[in-house]
Amino acid sequence: GGVQGNSSGRPLVIAHRGASAEQPEHTLAAYTTAFEAGVDGVECDVRLTADHHLVCVHDRRANRTSDGTGVISTLELARLKELDWASWKTLDDGSSTEQADRDPERGRLLTLRRLLDALTDQRQELLTLIETKHPTRWGGLVERQLVQVLREFGLTTGDLPGLPHVRVMSFSLMALKRMQGLAPQVPLVYLIDHAAPRLSFDGSLPKGIDIVGLDMRIVRRNPAAVEAHRRRGHTVYVWTVNTPEDVERCVEAGVDALISDRPRDVLAQLGGD
Ligand code: G3P
Ligand code: CA
């Protein structure tokens, strides 16, 4: 199995897209805020740019989380770097554009390399969940680029002390199998959406995959799904766990790691260390 909770018996707390309730998701500030809050790990989504760089962006398009528009995979890295990736959130929070403009660094695009730099600087075994998006396109280019970047950071050989503990996640078994072929030592997480066929909720996983990432809606509907997975030897992560009630449900169900937009609140509820 993979990571089984932390040493004090509480589930691990993972910052979803960084501390994304407090800071603009997938910005460096979202991750440094998560580190300061004392998280056990972080989650990020990665997409390919038109010139094949991996950037940390959730949506297919730039529209929601930047001041630009367009499909990420049709835009070059240089163009994406010109955009402001923070002001949308600042404005959501009721502050002014001028305030957002004062610190352009805040709005800088986060590349996977820059995130891994920040993570390795922490010199801790932070659980690092990297979700590959658009799994059915480019015949595995996303996975090849990801493995290349991970290799640069020495992160394809399995968990090492003082370095991030990387797990690659996908809703697509095909994408996970491609990843397995390229970097067999990197543990994989099969993500299961609440709308997935019921049978797969506690079903067996392909050889070499023993971590599931369950939609919180599955746990609400059927908390026993967690135990069913654990009986099969699976480690269970749950996303996105944002309320005290959901945190409680996950603790009672025996979840190994909670992926939350509000990791600071979750840590406070769980009583720290
Ligand atoms: O951690 C898994 C979760 O992030 C999957 O859903 O849409 O937030 O990427 P999404
Ligand atoms: Ca994700």
What report would you give on this structure?
The protein is of the alpha/beta class and about 270 residues long. It has one domain (about 10-60, about 110-270): TIM Barrel (Alpha-Beta Barrel). Helix content is about 35%, strand content about 15%. It has eleven helices and nine strands. It has helices at about 30-35, 75-80, 85-90, 95-100, 110-120, 140-150, 175-180, 215-220, 225-230, 245-255, 265-270; strands spanning about 10-15, 40-50, 55, 125-130, 165-170, 190, 210-215, 235-240, 255-260. Strands 1-2-4-5-6-7-8-9 form an eight-stranded parallel barrel, surrounded by four helices. β8 (about 235-240), α10 (about 245-255) and β9 form a beta-alpha-beta unit. It is globular, with a radius of gyration of 18 Å. The two termini are about 25 Å apart. About 45% of the residues are buried. The model has no long low-confidence stretch (mean pLDDT about 90). The protein binds SN-glycerol-3-phosphate (G3P) and calcium ion.
What secondary-structure arrangement, pairings included, does this model have?
Elements: E1 12-16, H1 28-37, E2 41-48, E3 54-55, H2 77-82, H3 87-92, H4 97-101, H5 112-121, E4 127-132, H6 141-152, E5 165-170, H7 173-182, E6 188-192, E7 211-215, H8 216-221, H9 224-231, E8 235-239, H10 244-253, E9 257-260, H11 263-270
Parallel strand pairs: 1-2, 1-9, 2-4, 4-5, 5-6, 6-7, 7-8, 8-9
Antiparallel strand pairs: 2-3
Bound molecules: SN-glycerol-3-phosphate (G3P) and calcium ion.
